[in-house]
């Protein structure tokens, strides 16, 4: 492969919102071009819907739309396959089916990396695998990986620091968004909700921004049985922020399996204004507005009572 | 001069309007069908309200609008408060029943439950995708049985042994109902069974996992059906209150909220001769193709909404394709 002109396509969906800082700087260090799909728009959603089976969750349908955008524009599309990140934990099936789904639907070259810690396939090994398939030397790959890992850690730290700062200084209602980053930051799923919330004079706290050490084992306050890594993180984040916020929005895409379980747990254990918003592909903004507005009314009234 | 406040609740099926005085007493009220045209419905409402207060020494110090067309109508009337129907219903109901703890509401196409503690809303739920067990379902089944839906309640009360009807889904309820009628169940038993089905559906879907505490108030069009009221009382083992003016509580609530805004402006209700127009335009500036609604007052653009991003802010019907 001629590296000079190789371009990797990264779909702006699903794990992009979690790992892009890592990916971007890794490819940058290796001198590889990256092309991103644009923010989710209706066209991407419609393409994704027509390429997916009905039972897929909305986030996966959107992902398919992003992949479709990149096909024929790049040499490889980055599609990770992640099954297990920590011992005794798993990811949602979608994340370990992703490679096969894309491979079956599209006729395109895939740049794959495979993480399955319980079988000894660590993230580091996975990145070496990527680097090798791009014809890079072992030293080049490891240097790039270490730099990328540092950038990734620092940006996470910075976001956490900024959020703590906001928590300490904010005088507005603080609403915690409990949702996977691929929902929260998506232009069509999370952004309309965040816009509505900001119009209601609130500050948004993101549950997916946390310090890993700090939330360790905190999910056990809600459930010690959950084994999905990303759900555990959200529950841990929720417990971590719980005392410093005024209301909670559980934002889910239809029909997310892990969320359907953890949402019920949260709603029965948490004593704060809380709503569960489920987004599907039928976009009715009117209902959303009514729900958000009346939820903020509840938060305001409860605060008034508390302050009296 | 007496201060008074206008409250308007523009729903998908019906539009309601009230004028309250300073003590929340109703001075005038109207109820009519929206008929898919909220602007003309509101014009009619305003005209009727004006007729009812003619000659009385009244100044309007606030206009509040709620309901699904609240934004459109709020803009047209220049309302000083535009709020969602959940808050408006709760405020209105609390003004009539200060100690209410649970509000059940079943309307034409949607249903809600609102939980109140110490006079404030603490929780609520709305039906999501499923409209089973709402007014629309009852009227279609009434038609099938050849009964006027207004008679439903009275007929249901005659039943001694209500038929069991599958309540989970309208489609199954309907086929179950046809089957029961074919094998010879009495009409009043089937109708009473339908009322029970509506209640069970509501309690299992909308009110799922909510703690329903007395006093309970039941609102919305279906609350006029005695059969459903009795079925609720039986199922919940509590008295269920239905008000004569239950259909107006949203309008009453938003009028009270507009009073709380303490506005000093005098409002003018004279909109009958003003031409309002809403045009839908499609923004072509990005692949989202948002539908943007533009509101014109006598041919001048006064407001627009519906765009997902700032690219649509400057949209004027002149430079985009009309829908």
Explain what this protein looks like in three dimensions:
- The complex is a heterodimer of chains A (308) and B (323).
- By secondary structure, chain A is of the alpha/beta class.
- Helices cover 52% and strands 16% of the residues of chain A.
- Chain A has helices spanning 16-30, 42-51, 58-70, 93-105, 123-133, 138-169, 181-184, 191-199, 212-215, 229-241, 257-269, 285-307; strands at residues 7-10, 33-36, 76-84, 110-116, 173-178, 202-206, 247-253, 274-279.
- A four-stranded parallel β-sheet of chain A has the order 2-1-3-4, sandwiched between helices. Chain A has a four-stranded parallel β-sheet with strand order 6-5-7-8, with helices on both faces.
- In chain A, α1 (16-30) packs across α6 (138-169), α2 crosses α3 (58-70) and α5 packs across α6.
- The termini of chain A are far apart.
- The mean pLDDT of chain A is 92.
- With 323 residues, chain B is of the alpha/beta class.
- Chain B folds into three domains: 2-94 and 250-260, ATPase, nucleotide binding domain (Nucleotidyltransferase, domain 5), CATH 3.30.420; 99-243, ATPase, nucleotide binding domain (Nucleotidyltransferase, domain 5); 276-319.
- In chain B, β1 and β2 (14-21) form a beta hairpin.
- The radius of gyration of chain B is 22 Å and the shape is globular.
- The N and C termini of chain B lie far apart (47 Å).
- At the A-B interface, α2 and α12 of A face α3 and β8 of B.
